[in-house]
Amino acid sequence: MLLPYFQLEFVEAGCDEAGRGCLAGPVFAAAVILPRDFHHDVLNDSKQLCEKDRYDLRVHIEKEALAFAVSQVDHDEIDRINILKASFLAMHLAVEKLNIRPEFILVDGNRFTPYPNIPHECIIKGDGKYFSIAAASILAKTYRDDFMMKLADEHPIYGWHTNKGYPTIQHREAVINYGFSPYHRRTFRVSDPQLELFE
Q1: In a 10 Å sphere around its CB, with 0-12 CB exposed, 13-18 middle and 19+ buried, how is residue 163 labelled?
Q2: Are strands 104-108 and 120-123 parallel, antiparallel or unpaired?
Q3: In sequence order, which residues have a C-beta less than 8 Å from that of residue 146 and are 6 or more positions away?
């Protein structure tokens, strides 16, 4: 059962990212401010939902949200500063784009670089606990998937139409056999057996 908000005193924005574990493409992040009375029976962590539900929810979230924003940090910047810092940067950029300034940030995960002059709380598995984080996870995931589908048309050998840049066996073997595309993250060890597989 998701909760509508973490605290009642301040205007609260939920933040989440998508694409942190990918071999290729940007990391996306979203920030969402929902009305206090927001509720949706299907809304949950984007990873728990089918693709159709995610896209249906995106329409509903964008219609009902008081404010929302989506940002990205590309593969070159990820290689330059590392994926964790790039994820936090993408969240900061999303918060910055909101047309309502939040007074409190709710972040999915256990770490975050503080946003200037706005307090925050990190919530482990927060996309399965709070509506605003779940909504942010939906937007980040669907916008990133749209982006990767366009790249997939340019580079079909990596299977991005289905894996969206995550390290499936097909994707890893394609990199090993054909090399990197211009969109791959060069600092990620493609053949590392410890790398989590997505199938």
Answers
A1: buried
A2: parallel
A3: none
Q: What is the pLDDT of residues 131-180, one digit of tens each?
A: 999 999 999 999 999 999 999 999 999 999 999 999 999 999 999 999 99
Indicate the pairing of strand 12-18 with strand 67-73. Answer: unpaired
Write down the pTM of the prediction.
Answer: 0.94
Distance CA 156, CA 147 (A): 14
Helices 131-154 & 51-64 angle (0-180, nearest 10) = 120
CATH class of 12-178: alpha beta
DSSP state of 46: G
Number of continuous H segments (helices) and E segments (strands) in the chain: 6, 5
Report whether pLDDT(63) > 90: yes
